[in-house]
Amino acid sequence: MRPGRLTLHDSGYINTVKIYCATICYVGRNFKYISRSCEGGGSSSKEFVCQKFICEGGKSPFVLRTCANKRLGCLAGPAICRFSGGTGSCVRCDKNNCNL
After folding, report:
1. CB 69 within 8 A of CB 45
2. Total Cβ atoms within 10 A of residue 50
3. Any idea where the domains of the chain sit in the sequence?
């Protein structure tokens, strides 16, 4: 679905909407990550983004790469980062393997 086209027919008009989302993202922690296909994980959503969460400072700095539902914020990482006394930032992108 990246970039996909969703065509809606309404009263004789055709509206085309581009849907930008990732289908493949890097997944893993620090320097151990692989390219993996994004799947629903129990969700019916097919719209994903790639995420890269960076935790700096604190007791245990780390980088976390994941696929995520496009409608949700950066959920993986922030609580662990705060608990270890670090400062975190999250980058989301909608192209395949863009979270390098």
Report:
1. yes
2. 26
3. 23-93
Task: Find out whether 90 and 80 touch, Cβ atoms under 8 Å.
Answer: no
User: What is the three-class DSSP state of 99?
Assistant: coil
Query: Cα(35)–Cα(56) distance, rounded to whole angstroms?
Result: 24
β-bridge mates for residue 20, sequence order: none
Closest CA to 56 of 92, 89, 91, 100: 89
Topology of the domain covering 23-93: CD59 (2.10.60)
pLDDT 10s digits, 7-27: 344 445 554 445 578 999 999
* pTM of the shown model: 0.74
